[in-house]
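A.,

Following up on our hallway conversation. Structure tokens first:
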């Protein structure tokens, strides 16, 4: 009998660690993304936006930033309480 071919799935490349950003940097990035999204929505209404998929990507990026900001705020609150206890 012939041996069956074994297929191997290519492993996805490992994600590199994201750079650590301060709370202020995250908030600045959020404001700029919100402004870009507002402009993209405006151009989509006017029929000028070539790729409307950009709206979805921007909306998800904004949500990720909101999550990162809330996590950073929780982490800073946790470190503040630890410092007060010591």
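Then the amino acids I'd put at each of the 86 positions:
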């Amino acid at each position: 009998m012939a041996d069956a071919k074994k297929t191997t799935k290519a492993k996805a490349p490992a994600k590199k660690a994201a750079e650590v950003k301060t709370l202020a940097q995250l908030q600045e990035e959020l404001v700029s993304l919100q402004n870009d999204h507002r402009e993209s929505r405006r151009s989509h209404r006017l029929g000028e936006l070539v790729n409307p998929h950009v709206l979805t990507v921007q909306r998800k990026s904004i949500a990720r930033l909101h999550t990162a900001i809330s996590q950073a705020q929780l982490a800073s609150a946790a470190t503040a309480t630890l410092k007060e206890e010591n």
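Residues 23-85 form one domain. Curious whether your intuition agrees with the design.

B.
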